[in-house]
Amino acid sequence: MLRQGRAGVEGETAQPIALAGGAENEQTLAGILLVGAGDRSVPLITEAISAGATSAALVDVLASIGTETARTALERATQAPPPEVAAAAEQALRTLDEIGRQQE
To answer: DSSP readout, 74-101?
Structure first.
């Protein structure tokens, strides 16, 4: 289930988000909303990965966003401690590179 929050006071840190747990349709909806928010969701996703979230779904969302900001976050995620997150980030970068080559 998506858990997202921001305190109403400017400058406070966003709470980590997670796409883990909950029903599959809730996870799907969370992913759709995060992708729809584009670059605005990248800091929240990055924070969740940095906090130790092991969901490869977060990496998939970054790949789906596909912007330079998301790519930078994916590059950082390749160094993430959970090996499944790092591996998913490496695969996502390869996929984005392939898509870029096909569009040239």
So the answer is: HHHHTT-SSHHHHHHHHHHHHHHHHHHH
Can you tell me the distance from the alpha carbon of 43 to that of 23, in angstroms, rounded to the nearest whole number? 24
Q: Give domain status of residue 97, yes or no.
A: yes
Tokens 């912007």 belong to which residue?
Answer: 67
Would 40 be classed as within a structural domain?
yes
pLDDT in tens, 1-44: 334 444 332 333 333 344 655 677 887 888 889 999 999 999 99
What total number of domains does the chain contain? 1
- Over 80: is that where the pLDDT of 100 sits? yes
Answer whether residue 19 is part of any domain: no
The verdict on residue 8 lying in a domain is no
